[in-house]
Amino acid sequence: MAERELHYFARGNTAAGMHSLVKSVFQGVRTLYVLQGYPGGTAEILGRLASEGKIQGWTLQLIHQPLDSDLLEGLIIDDLSVGLVDGAAWGEDVVLEETETVVRFIDLRPVLAADRLAAEAEAIQEFEREISALYDKAYATFLQTLRIHDEWEKFYIDNLDRDKMDQLAADWSHTHLTPDGNGAGTPARVIHRFLGAATWRGAVDFVPNLTDRLDTRIFVKGRPGSGKSTLFRKIAAVAEERGIDTEVYHCGFDPGSLDMLIFPDLSLAIFDSTAPHEHFPVREGDHILDVYEMAITPGTDEKYADSIRRVKERYTASMKESISLLAEVKEIVQRLEGVYRNAANEQALNEISGGLFAELSREVEVQNTVSS
């Protein structure tokens, strides 16, 4: 991995509800700090550490909040194999399989004035109820949107040449997935992430950031239901069989679908480059793979144009409704964060942040000394 920062999501607001991949994201780190905090507090600490880490030149993975992508809910310092995560994102029942990972809990809540929180207890409870109800409504609307998307897909599924797509998966894997031999006989490391998320502002993705360090990028074009996700799933299976490390990126709308695969050791990515994360080739090494032209019955777009247009309009309207509900969530979350901000002792929070940064800095110095 280049000396730089990567951006992605570990959780998503999806048609299946809040879907988490945090266990996969943090699997294998040497030390994991779980920040047990309060609304707004953990994001502030993580933001400070990320800013300081950039100044120090640390290699960082920045894990963004799915509601507001401007804020962080996690951080990985590659130089140290150290992760930090918001306790609310981590959850209470997540257990890492890597026994050598040391999990440390840091409690930020002592910086809060208990009397101030007690005075706002009813307001806090009401905000939390509203947020929960709005999330439930948003997820139900996302599910409704997915069902409409299923209707859209059916036009193309019914006109898909599956034999051609199967052959494409086999041919592509044969051409591109050739191990360099360095990892022969060792199991592949597979990490699951989200490249994008449905946020309160709408769809946000980090495809350019995640792929611009790679030599080869395959932009897969097509239509809903044209077999892109199935293609990625088959390619990922071949890569794992061959011991090739793979970053698997799930769809932020339908987490059961895949949107991108990155093979770091091969400096290669293949990804769904259609809305809402549509991108186009801009440099040498970028290539388009159009599965509509390759495997869909010619004339399908034209034959069903009116029906497809109507389904697309319904889908767009339903998605806008879902996003508007997330915008309502964001508004109430900000009010809730304001309550906690007024109850927080800023100096005490600074001391925790400064102490944690100093501890991490010492570890980096030790690592650099050992390496030299």
What would you say this structure looks like, in words?
The protein is α/β, with parallel strands linked by helices. The protein has two domains: 5-112 and 345-371, no CATH class; 160-296, no CATH class. Helix content is 47%, strand content 22%. It has helices spanning 22-26, 41-56, 87-90, 114-119, 121-157, 162-176, 207-211, 228-241, 291-295, 300-303, 305-343, 346-371, and strands at residues 5-9, 11-14, 17-20, 31-36, 60-64, 72-77, 82-86, 102-107, 190-194, 196-199, 202-205, 216-221, 246-250, 258-263, 268-272, 286-290. Strands 1-5-6-7-4-8 form a six-stranded mixed β-sheet. A six-stranded mixed β-sheet has the order 9-13-14-15-12-16. It has a two-stranded antiparallel ribbon with strand order 2-3. A hairpin with a 2-residue loop joins strand 10 (196-199) and strand 11 (202-205). Helix 2 (41-56) runs parallel beside helix 12, helix 5 (121-157) packs antiparallel against helix 11 and helix 6 packs parallel to helix 8. The chain is flat. It starts with a strand and ends with a helix. The relative contact order is 0.17. The model has no long low-confidence stretch (mean pLDDT 94).
Structural class: alpha/beta
Overall mean pLDDT stands at 94
Spans of at least 5 consecutive residues whose pLDDT stays below 50 are: none
Radius of gyration (Å): 22 Å
Regarding quaternary structure, how should these chains be classified?
A: single chain
Q: What is the CA-CA span between the terminal residues?
A: 20 Å
The 3D shape can be described as: flat
Strand content range: 15-25%
Number of structural units classed as domains: 2
Tell me the number of strands: 16
What portion of residues is helical? Answer: 40-55%
Q: How many strands, what sense, and barrel or not for the largest sheet?
A: 6 strands, mixed
Order of helices and strands: EEEHEHEEEHEHHHEEEHEHEEEEHHHH
Please give the count of helices.
Answer: 12
Strand adjacency order, main sheet: 1-5-6-7-4-8
